[in-house]
Amino acid sequence: MYRPLAILALSAALAGCDGQPEQHASVAPAQPQHGGVLRVAFDGDPNCIDPQQAGNNTALNVGRQLVDSLTDQDPQSAEIVPWLAERWEVSADSRQFTFHLREGVTFADGSPLDAAAVKANFEAIVALGARAQLAGTYLAGLESVQVNGPLSVQVTFKQANAQFLQASSTMSLGLLSPATLQRSAEERCQGALSGSGPFTVKSFEHNRLVRIEARPDYHWPSSLAGHQGRAWLDAIEFHILPESGVRLGSLLSAQIDVNTSVPVQDEAVLESQGVPSINRPNPGIVFSLTPNVSRPPLDERAVRQALNKAIDRRQFQGVISRFQKPATSVLASSTPFYQDLSSHLAYDPEGAGRLLDEAGWIRGADGWRQRDGKRLGFALDYWQATTPVLELVQQQLRAIGVELRLNKSTIGQVSLQQTSLDYSLWFFNLTRADPDVLRTVFLSSGRNVNVRGPLPLDQTLQDSAASLDAARRGALIQQASAELLAQGHVIPLVEAATVTAFRDAVRGLHYEASTRLQFYDTWLVRP
Amino acid sequence: MKTSPLWRLAQALLVLWAAFSLSFAILYALPGDPVAILLAQSGEPGTADPAQVAELRARYHLDGSLWQQYGGALWRLLHLDLGVSLQTGKPVAAALAAALPATLALAFAALLLAVPLGIGVALAARQVRRRPLQAALHNAPALVVSLPTFWVGLLLLQLFSFRLHWLPAMGEHGVASLVLPALTLALPCAAMIAQVLGRSLASVSQQPFVQALRSKGVGRWRLLWRHVLHNAAIPLLSLTGTLLGNLLAGAVVTETVFSRDGVGRLAQAAVASQDIAVVQGVVLLAATLYVLTNLLTDLLYPRLDPRLRQGSHP
Question: Can you give A492-515 as a three-state secondary structure string?
Fold first, then answer.
């Protein structure tokens, strides 16, 4: 909310003369050990900690610890690997998925995790409707879930659904006990949850604290896990600290162990203090502008292409985190099947000017381009904390005579504009470790952020969802991405990145494939 | 002036109704759709089914015309039903009941600090004769009132928590976690008390009875303590309402900086997400507290000031 510079300077100065900076411990034991309570700082209330319903990152970070998934995804190779399912088969048309579950897995309330429980979960997610927004998208077109045996379950879709295998690794499709599914959506949000995960909910006090405790009998971690048996930590406390200065000071004074939300301006202080951190570009769609092509003048391809050419993406590095990169495609570099398409995003202000001249948008005496007495300009309403990047875009467009009017607004007003299609440009990013985000966002019969009619591009997007063959899928994703850029349907700007700072006593902290934290292997060095 | 209890009750209900109607009008006029906000928690493009959106709208009484929504909300309020939070799905009354104790504890602790501090500064400013110190005591309240609560809170945190490690920066267990937020909230209140009392002390000291006492040779401290303060303290009572407002408004900022749960955080989050039922619950709670405080002040005045007592019974 408030970020006066004086406070930051003061934080830096006071932190700088702090007597006991957390330096790298030289006598750390090499072996992980059980015990300890990890104190993690969030920047906002998770609102709803049911992973099947959750939408925001804080909630998903809690939910990930409570549930296990059928599969897991390797954050490096993006490969889908066994977790609760020991193996699976996918039909040639990517419509049928058969999972064979591992034996002996139970939910925290003691009930067994079997094929019937998986069926109950997927059917309950569909019944949740709009409340299970992410999970609902993953299961779109679900035809049936069939129990083939106590530990064998077959999921069938009405259409090809290659993304479902990756979706089965997300916490959104994590499994809850049948008794939990009987509860109301609201009760589940408040923490009445029994998953099969390594931690269980102890208490959830809004705006204050979520406490989860290790389950002693847990012994079915993902095949990617670094150890077996119960989690190393005894418990995790997620403290909600809305002020970035308080999170920074609390970390430096060892009142918290992990800060999950490090703003760009705090990075220098943390670095100068030698505070360890991990960071990862968020996979999915990068921070982009998408034009509404149903409105003039963005219905003209030349104008959209000119916007892409007028933006010098290398300049962004000066105003973003050093862990962030300028966009090189519509997909972030950490997304599976990502390909560098920066040749499509070359800075070419002369080319942009030529395109606009040919389209009849001529520079007037005041420097702005005009046609038939109308100035070439658009409004952009946004709510994200990325103002410096957008201001740079504003300046770069001004250089070619195009006006961008920035209006920082609230998330509520922006989402209302979007649902009522009342926008010229939409600014967003979307985190998901599967390129299928392109289809959900850009398909003319999907979210259709461009508000466009059907195009041959739709077939390419559909086909990319139909194939699990890596080579074929990669080619289709590249073809679709290149087409989106060539048509000016997306103007990628910068990649999103997550930075997590922590005390030196915290070990084994890491992100899962979609850049949310996984605490099963995390442990604390005790003094 | 009518002072019958029935008339007072009617007045109080009128104030509550006005607060409810005004907040409803403002929230309704805000651009933005609470259901859209609920569905766009992360601001990422989603694919919600229009039928399901309509169902959510109906569940939270957000369908129908302005008058239908207003009438429905008022009708439920008359049955003491504050509605259900859109964000959490919990009853608003339960959310308020959960948040109130923390805010009350904070407010009472702040008052415990503010009252003696404010009175002390005002008295000292009156009695101290050394020039620089007197000037400082006179001007300190005006300075403190104009400091942003947010900045004071962060400054105290930096010094006493992050640097000296004396007090925790967060948590709500025990007295230690209450000290810094209470102090942050108390400072502007103490400054207000010192300002009002200081002015009042000055004006009472000018009155003939004080000069008469002084000429009789009554000592300075005895004069202030026994005669001036007693008379000068009465205007402080009229400050109660303002102080209450200050405490509630300060709670929003203080609770955010010190990561405490409470009515302030509840209100801030509810406004941000346009959780209409919760905002209205907070508004009604604040209005009720105001009404009760003013009622209490009016009842206390005649007891403390004999002149008023005589005035109402000629």
Answer: EEECCEEEEEECCCEECCEECCCC
Cα–chain-centroid distance for residue A94?
A: 25
Q: What is the pLDDT of residues A418-436, one digit of tens each?
A: 777 889 999 999 888 889 8
Which structure tokens are listed for A140?
A: 């779109």
Cβ-in-10-Å burial (0-12, 13-18, 19+) of B90 comes to middle
Contact list, A56 vs chain B (CB under 8 Å)? 41-42
Confidence band of A186 (pLDDT split at 50, 70, 90): confident
DSSP state, A191? T
Tokens (6 digits) for A97: 């998925």
Name the amino acid, one letter, at B7.
W
Chain A interface, best mutation among B33, B37, B39, B41, by max A CB count within 10 A: B41
Single out the residue of A148, A119, A123, A145 nearest to residue A136, CA to CA: A123
To 10 degrees, what angle do helices A5-16 and A244-252 make?
Answer: 0
Between A3 and B200, name the one with better pLDDT.
B200
Q: Residue B124 pLDDT more than 70?
A: yes
Residue B161 to residue B168: CA distance in whole angstroms? 6
| Amino acid at site B9 | L
DSSP label at A344?
G
Enumerate the residues of chain A whose CB falls inside 8 A of the CB of residue B45.
418, 426, 428, 430, 440-441, 447, 449
Residue of A303, A106, A238, A131 whose CA lies nearest to A519 = A238
User: Closest by alpha carbon to A41, among A514, A512, A506?
Assistant: A506
Contacts of A413 in chain B (CB under 8 A): 31-32
Contacts of B178 (CB under 8 A, 6+ apart): B105, B106, B109, B172
Parallel/antiparallel/unpaired status of strands A497-502 and A277-281 = antiparallel
- The DSSP-derived string for B187-219 is HHHHHHHHHHHHHHHHHHHTSHHHHHHHHTT--
Provide the number of CB pairs (under 8 Å) joining chain A to chain B. Answer: 170
- Residue A184 CB neighbours (<10 A): 10
Tokens for B156, please give them: 């105290």
- So what's the pLDDT on residue A476? 93
Q: Which two tokens stand for residue A93?
A: 């048309």
- Tell me the two tokens of residue A330: 């519509």
Q: Which residue of B has its CA nearest to A245?
A: B154
Q: Count CB atoms within 10 A of the CB of residue A367.
A: 10
- Per-residue pLDDT of A74-124, as tens digits, reads 998 889 999 999 999 999 888 999 999 999 999 999 999 999 999 999 999
A5 lies within 8 A of chain B by CB: no
Task: Specify the amino acid at residue B202.
Answer: A
Chain A touched by B177 (CB under 8 Å): no
Which runs of consecutive H residues, i.e. helices, occur in A75-220? 115-128, 133-138, 164-167, 178-182, 185-189
DSSP state, A20? Answer: -
User: Contacts of residue A206 in chain B, CB cutoff 8 Å?
Assistant: 88, 95, 98, 261, 266
Distance of CA A154 to the CA centre of its chain: 28
Report the mean per-residue pLDDT for chain A: 88
pTM for the whole thing? 0.82
pLDDT for residue A25: 41
CA dist., res. A82 & res. B218, Å (int): 91
Task: Assess B36–A contact: CB distance below 8 Å, yes or no.
Answer: yes
Q: What residues contact residue A110 under an 8 Å CB cut-off, 6+ apart?
A: none
Quote the CA–CA distance of A128 and A134 in Å, as a whole number: 11
Write out residues 103-132 of A within 8 Å (CB-CB) of B.
129-131
Angle CA B21–B25–B30, to nearest 5: 150
A133, A250, A446: residue with CB nearest B169: A250
Strands A403-408 and A377-382: parallel
How many beta carbons lie within 10 A of that of residue A96, not counting itself?
Answer: 17
The answer to whether B227 contacts chain A (CB < 8 Å) is no
